[in-house]
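Lay summary. Proteins are chains of building blocks that fold into shapes, and those shapes determine what they do. In this project we predict the shape from the chain. Here is one chain we studied, written as its sequence of building blocks.
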Amino acid sequence: MADSREISEVEIARHNIKTDLWLVIHGKVYDVTKYLEDHPGGAQALIEVAGQDATAAFEDVGHSADSREIMEQFIVGKAMDSRENSNEDSKPKRAIVIARDQATSSVGPDLQEHETSRFILKSALIGSTAFLGYEGFARLPAIGWLKTQHGGFWQGFIIASVAGISVLTGVILYAERVMSLTGKTTPYSWPAHYKPHRSIIKPITENIGWLKPQEYQKLPLFKNEKLSADTCRLTFKLPSSNQILGLPIGQHIAIRAEIDGKPVGDQVEFRGPKGQMRYRKGMAKDIGMIAGGTGITPMYQLIRAICEDDKDDTKVTLLYGNNTEQDILLRSELDAFTSAYPQKFKYENILSRPGSTWSGKKGFISKDLVKEKLPPPSPDSKILLCGPPGLINAMTKSLAELGFDKPNAVSKLSDQVFLF
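And here is the predicted shape, written in a compact code that computers can read:
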């Protein structure tokens, strides 16, 4: 059978042109030459990973079960020495992260009650053991000096001391257990977001929260807020108030449901994290952002992370395009960051249909405005793009004319121009 044939990395790499295109996904080798024109994401997305392992790009896009079935007919073998056919290898790894603050505790109320019960039991056992040991010890003939006429005083003193030591030992054991599990000194849950006291040493690339990259899970709709004429903010509730979502800075999630008209309490399916952007301090000295409408969402993640990290000196400039003033999302939050961190963050609103009272920029984000406001092309600068297709197409052309690299159909973290 074709799918049992083992193919070397060298041979796979030879098939790297439009008329002869192979790629690897989860250890299986596919000849997708005849599928190029039918690919929903366009031929260019496949050409960019020709002759390579395309597993990460395939999963980040979030293909359906139907697309996986379609791919079966193009299998020509499996990559030599590949371990991807093992289910274990494709599962997300869980990591213990050292020396960094987390936004929430991983310990729920049930576990806290369990630890409290263990503390009480330990204290009782230690105290009982110590008391019985004392009584038995004092009754030995050779230790008669403990039973003098003042024995009542000494007996009470020793029992009180043992009881105090037992309680103190139990408290220490309980506190030590809580701190080892949560990294904090109180049993209460953290807020959804807080400013870290220590900078993040390296990006979290493994899934350590509620999210699962390969599996959809359901969450109930908790709140539905209308932000503008065509935008709502949907808030979903995690199973426990002590859980974290597990979404690294810059990444996103896949949502599967019919959201329109969902009443509060209905469930929606989530899968992730997804995407190639995993922000880390020092990724660039200057970051230029171009966003339109809801394209502000991934930008805001990075803006908040950079501004709230005292040891991150990255400078961020955002050009944010919308139709009307009412369409500007997260405006109060963005304004607050410009006021609190003027040395790190600044942004400009551009409106295509402004009202008569608008005194800011009008029209569309232009090449001249990009040249004026954003950092020039250099090894230390990066441009991030997110928004409607019209904005992306216009900005891709303008950035290339200004000397920036042309972005790939599927962006990688190392790209000078990154498309969310």
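What the prediction tells us: The CA atoms of residues 229 and 327 lie 7 Å apart.
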